[in-house]
Design a protein that fits this description.
7-stranded mixed sheet, 9 helices, alpha/beta
């Protein structure tokens, strides 16, 4: 279940590639970026994606969006907004810095302070789920925010992720200045200043992020069907990942595999001409991510395999981004769930009796 952002953000960051507001359910439930949110039960059926051919070649595209905001205990002073705009002009060469939504050539940054009523923060109850690094007092303060500064980017390219890192630094600087909180629209999470720095700004291995700390993995269930979807891959110019049917006992193993696939894609991996992505857990270049993913694999894991990536049909509450579904077409089984279980046993191991 996810916190629903109002229509304002969708109007601000309406992008051909997705991004901006994504649908939500009544209550939010992310636990931490890159790890499964508490599985939610949905009354709507989980609709499997129709059969489709795997996607060959690179999944990355130049266009991408970054949606951030800073909530403040006090109204945003005009000088704060102006300083953020000037900082963006200095640190984002070649990017059009706008102070109101308007048609303009890409790349562009939109920095302005809307009325708090039109961009209200999450409630204290919602922040128990979508807050990161917030204690009870901070949740109370954040929910009572009286000001907000929107920081949105529509980028034509960011191959080295320099603009993403600069956007994160800008949000951090503003939040420090106003003793505020950073909202990430793509994952639907609110961070304290210290947790934003620790989770989003620290932990890069050179120019490579630990993708687990930049995305949210959400699980939901309907009767015997279990589905997973990532949120936040749009900032890397990549589609979000979907698994539409898995066994309930496979949630932990699927989390490990989804983390690995997301990391490999951000590091430049792409499907071959057949549409299959070669998955080699040992080839992950980010050292901490690789070590954590290998540690999560069982002793009997082969640590490599192949995953087909096919276009996926979005459902209510999914990220407004391209979606690709992981399919395990080359593994044995009479159903998608059985083939997924066979792939997981091969790639990340059977482990203990589940």
């Amino acid at each position: 279940m996810r916190f629903r952002r109002g229509r304002l953000w969708a109007a601000i960051l309406a992008l051909a590639v997705g991004g901006g507001c994504h649908g939500a359910k009544d209550e939010p439930s992310p636990s931490r970026a890159g790890q499964p949110a508490a599985a939610s039960s949905s009354s709507a059926p989980l609709i499997p994606s129709p059969p489709s051919a795997p996607l060959p070649g690179t999944l990355a595209q130049g266009t991408r969006s970054i949606g951030l905001a800073v909530y403040s205990p006090q109204p945003i002073a005009p000088a704060v907004a102006k300083d953020a705009q000037e900082t963006a002009r200095a640190n984002f060469p070649g990017v059009n810095v706008l102070f109101m939504p308007m048609d303009a050539p890409l790349p562009q940054a939109l920095i302005f302070a809307p009325d708090i009523a039109s961009f209200a923060p999450p409630t204290e109850k919602q922040l128990a789920y979508v807050g990161r690094g917030l204690d009870a007092a901070q949740r109370h303060t954040a929910a009572g925010s009286k000001g907000v500064l929107v920081l949105g980017w529509k980028l034509d390219a960011d191959p080295t992720l320099d603009r993403l890192r600069e956007a994160q630094r800008l949000a951090f600087g503003v939040a420090q200045k106003v003793s505020g909180f950073v909202w990430d629209e793509t994952t639907g999470q609110l961070f304290g200043v210290a947790s934003w720095k620790r989770i989003r700004m620290d932990g890069w291995d050179g120019a490579i992020p630990d993708v687990r700390q930049h995305i949210l993995l959400h699980y939901e269930t309907h009767e015997a069907k279990h589905r997973a979807v990532t949120f936040g891959m749009v900032k890397f110019g990549l589609p979000d990942l979907v698994v539409s049917d898995m066994l309930p006992s496979d949630v932990d193993r699927m989390t490990t595999l989804l983390d690995a696939v997301a990391q490999l894609l951000v590091e430049g991996g792409s499907p071959g001409t057949s549409g299959d992505l070669a998955v080699d857990l040992k080839s992950i270049r980010h050292r901490s991510a690789r070590d954590a993913i290998l540690a999560a694999a069982a002793a009997d894991a082969q640590l490599h395999g192949r995953v087909a990536l096919v276009p996926a049909q979005g459902q209510q509450g999914d990220p407004e981004n391209r979606l690709v579904e992981l399919r395990f077409l080359s593994y044995p089984g009479a159903s998608d769930a059985e083939r997924a279980a066979a792939a997981l046993t091969s790639i990340v191991g059977a482990g203990a009796d589940r």
